[in-house]
Amino acid sequence: MDATSRPGRSHAGKVAWITGGANGIGAAVARRLAGEGAHVLLADIDTERGTALAKELDGAFVRCDVREPEDSKAAVAAAVERFGGLDIAFLNAGVAQRTGIGGDFDIAAYRRAMAINLDGVVYGVDAALPALRARGGGDIIATASMAGLVATPFDPIYGANKAAVVGLVRALGPNHLPENIRVNALCPSFADTDIIAGTREDLEKAGFPILEVADVVEAFMAILGSDGAGEAWFVVKGRPSEPFRFRGAPG
Ligand code: NAD
């Protein structure tokens, strides 16, 4: 913990909107926040798993395709109506959709990946800011990736949209800090969720260590407990007592 951290910050009674909250990292963060007494509004296209998890956590689920700006606005409105406001926006929905460039370029896959991973975060920020302002401040945490900070060979389009999210967050951080809204990015290396199901073998062959989802949750909580803004937190597998080693961009 550094001098700017807020280790005693309580999340009880806080309201969190989590995109991609039905599975993987979003679902794990939802469990953790709900366990600490927060109200969670899960927003996802996976209605079945989202509804079941919301029920389990005594939260709420809304079907939300983050490619549609109106869906994000409706999700925030649902959080305000159901729980009285919004304190945390975790803009986490994302896909890894490999497409090559030059010969095997798939324009539909490209547009889908950019629309979910980049446009979805932009629309999410736009929807969340008025509600956070109405509350007197709060947190926006976007899930980017290690691929947005350093070169990874597997998916150049993923690297492009995740680097754009890091750039967005860096610009927004100082802009919104004066209104007590902290905007930061969570940048995991590879983590054990469905998203890497198709690439796990390649990753393991290439010697990449794979994070437990619990490591990513710890990093999310550390961001939430910090006073930083416009920062990208690089989450890498390390010793159990030191799950992340870099804060901000390398170099
Ligand atoms: P996941 O596949 O388990 O979860 C992704 C969730 O996003 C799913 O619930 C899915 O239904 C939802 N989603 C997909 N398209 C959507 C849309 N259009 N609108 C709303 N929701 C949508 O994978 P995950 O690893 O938990 O991914 C969460 C985030 O973490 C993503 O942004 C991903 O890029 C990022 N990330 C993952 C890893 C990793 O190795 N797992 C590493 C770095 C970054």
From TrEMBL:
Keywords: Oxidoreductase
Keyword Oxidoreductase in record: yes
An MF annotation (GO) of this entry: oxidoreductase activity
Gene3D superfamilies: NAD(P)-binding Rossmann-like Domain (3.40.50.720)
InterPro entries noted in UniProt: NAD(P)-bd_dom_sf, SDR_fam
Family: Belongs to the short-chain dehydrogenases/reductases (SDR) family.
Name of the protein this chain belongs to: NAD(P)-dependent dehydrogenase (Short-subunit alcohol dehydrogenase family)
